[in-house]
Amino acid sequence: MDKHATTATVRLGPLPGLPAQVYPARRPLGEERHALLLWLHGGCFNDGSAAQARARCAMLAEAGADVVALDYPLAPEHPFPAGLDAAFLALQALAARPAGLTGSVHTALLVGGEEAGGNLAAALALMTRDQHAPALAGQLLLSPMLDPALGSRSMRQGECGSSSCLYAKGWQAYLGRCAHADHPYAVPLNARRLAGLAPALVLSVAGHPLHDEASRYAAALRAHGSPAQDLALPALDAGHAHHPIHEFLREAARRALSLPA
């Protein structure tokens, strides 16, 4: 059997809804706890798909999450805030019926994403705080794209940041007008209010162009009093990321569901 196979395809948000792939958790979190994770695939805002994230979603399911991978609208046809708004509607839909996907009322809701998806996940955490719903147990960010200036040391060392690089093209497609670069939901790293956010686990790869902005965001969250842990790993694969993700999911669910350790 294909270990990456999904068991269901669902549609989330207002009719007709956006397609999403469901990956049931393959490892218990203990004490009847469940973590329902809305996953936003990688890419540079203008590429990628939920289907291409199958291996990543399978890894998250092995770590203990019930994963729902969303195909969000891509730039430049759908610039900011189209993809973010669609993801927020999908998150609200999941919050309305978490037990329908996990089979348990003891379900904590989390958001997560990689690269551009990590940006959207971080922005969703800001939106849920500002709108006081839905309640998030945590945010899982893998090598998130957070700095359109592309001026970090890791970006320069990776010989990225020029107008021809994938990150620059992705930011240009997503932001459209430069004024959007000042919006905290478009660039969470520039947000002035980072207090009161769901706990974050920020994972990056040592030497990766996005490493420095990931570390900066985790540090900024901590500076504002929001719980955040950041780890630089040799690779974002099951061998290196499985354990920290499992521990993060387990603790987030325990805390959100007020269950004993």
TrEMBL record:
Signal peptide: none annotated. Residues 37-229 form the Alpha/beta hydrolase fold-3 domain. InterPro entries: AB_hydrolase_3, AB_hydrolase_fold, GDXG_lipolytic_enzyme. It comes from the Bacteria. Pfam families: Abhydrolase_3. This is Alpha/beta hydrolase fold domain-containing protein. GO terms for molecular function: hydrolase activity. It comes from Pelomonas margarita. Keywords: Hydrolase.
